[in-house]
Design goal:
The radius of gyration is 15 Å and the shape is elongated. The chain has 2 helices and no strands. It is mainly alpha-helical. The chain has helices at 11-19, 24-40. The protein has a domain at 10-42.
Length: 74
């Protein structure tokens, strides 16, 4: 069973995705599945071995860059 949720996505990204005919809902679902798969992997903690600060997501793309992209954070 699927559930409706609300997410906030940059307006320009929405326009661009629609131009390409992308299914934003399916892409979001697939991204969440992939992130959960990675987090449940036995190798997940190894990604932090070379991080100076374990709270950082070293070597991985930030899927929610927030203020790093000039956006306001709530």
């Amino acid at each position: 069973m699927k559930k409706n949720v609300m997410i906030r996505i940059d307006e320009n990204l929405i326009k661009k995705a629609k131009e390409y005919g992308l299914n934003i809902s399916k892409i979001s679902e697939n991204a969440l599945k992939e992130m959960l798969r990675r987090m449940q992997s036995p190798d997940f903690s190894k990604e932090f071995e070379n991080c100076p600060n374990p709270d950082d997501w070293c070597g991985r793309r930030d899927l929610n860059p927030g203020s790093q992209r000039g956006r306001l954070t709530s």
